[in-house]
Amino acid sequence: MTNPSLLRIQSRESRPGKFELALSGRIDTISADRLQETLATILASSPRAIQLNMSGVSYISSSGLGVIVSTIVRVRAHGGKFAMTELQAPVRKVFEIAAALPEEAVFASEEEADRYFDAIQLKVRGAE
Fold first, then answer.
1. What is the pLDDT along the chain (128 residues), one digit of tens a residue?
2. DSSP conformation class of 101
3. Whether 28 contacts 64, CB under 8 Å
4. What is the pTM of this model?
5. Could you tell me which residues are beta bridge partners of residue 11?
6. Three-class SS of residue 81?
7. Rounded to 5 degrees, what are φ and ψ at 103?
8. Radius of gyration of the chain from its Cα atoms, rounded to whole angstroms
């Protein structure tokens, strides 16, 4: 049986300062830490650009969302560029809703936020 928290990360520096990561699997509470570590190593080099290919990502939790949003902020803070490509519909919906939430949107816990995003992703999958 495949580990449901398995996240595969393939990373390469395609040009000096430009990093491309292909992600596949789930970005959940457990695997978000591994993604954070990978991105922290890249961010330490002050990259000019980071691109995440999300075509293989089937699920993202609030932890995963936080890792990606903090990466965007950090890359842009030193003038770098950030891009995500090929998001599956349920994952895209999470990012759309997160962007639409007011900054002061508060969940009682990480579990509550995950239940909220889980329900959205299930609903979008059902509509496909």
1. 455 558 999 999 999 999 999 999 999 999 999 999 999 999 999 999 999 999 999 999 999 999 999 999 999 998 999 999 999 999 999 988 888 665 555 567 778 878 888 888 888 888 76
2. S
3. yes
4. 0.81
5. 21
6. strand
7. -55, -30
8. 15
